[in-house]
Design brief:
Blueprint (H helix, E strand, L loop, with lengths): L10 H29 L13 H16 L3 H11 E8 L6 E2 L1 H14 L4 E10 L2 E9 L5 E11 L5 E7 L8
Parallel strand pairs: 1-6
Antiparallel strand pairs: 1-2, 3-4, 4-5, 5-6
Length: about 170
């Protein structure tokens, strides 16, 4: 009577095939782990890390405190702490520029146009090293004047390296 396996594989060859398959599988697992480790940023080495909503909020809150202070010295101190020296800055009034000084000029202009006014944070959404935040201008009398948005990018050093500011949105563009 013939066996169901008409050409049986010798035991030695079967062991060799299993060993080769196990080696290939182990190599794939090691490669996968290696790729994952390379893809995951190492904060200690200055890699871009994932920023939580809470971290984005705190950084932006510190940034807005520079907008809210009337002291030029305090404004410069805060801006130096949270903004890259060569920050990329773009607003509806400014094409993309690179300079912390331009942001500082806009802060001074805000105080001329809204004496006693300040900014508050409306909301936040972040992923990786980018966050979208809603800003709220509150006038000296406590009334809300406008809401707009900023997209911030945080550099490897933890400072804001790019800000794109959006004017207040409209519900109906017509």
């Amino acid at each position: 009577m013939a066996s169901s396996n008409s050409h049986p594989i010798p035991a030695r060859r079967r062991e060799s095939t299993m060993l080769r398959n196990a080696t290939i599988l182990a190599s794939l697992v090691i490669l996968s782990i290696s790729v994952s480790v390379q893809a995951a940023p190492d904060a200690a080495k200055g890699g871009v890390s994932v920023m939580t909503n809470q971290e984005a909020w705190k950084l932006y809150e510190k940034y807005l405190s520079a907008w809210n202070t009337t002291s030029m010295e305090e404004r410069l101190k805060i801006a130096t702490e949270v903004l890259s020296e060569n920050i990329e800055y773009q607003t509806a009034r400014h094409d993309l520029s690179t300079a912390r000084s331009l942001v500082m000029e806009d802060m001074a202009t805000f105080h001329k146009n809204f004496p006693g006014g300040h900014f508050e944070i409306g909301d936040v959404s972040s992923h990786h090293n980018v966050a979208l935040l809603t800003w709220v201008i509150v006038q000296a009398d406590g009334k809300e004047f406008a809401r707009g948005g900023d997209q911030i990018t945080v550099g490897r050093n933890g400072q804001i390296s790019k800000i794109i500011t959006f004017a207040p949105s409209v519900k109906d563009p017509n």
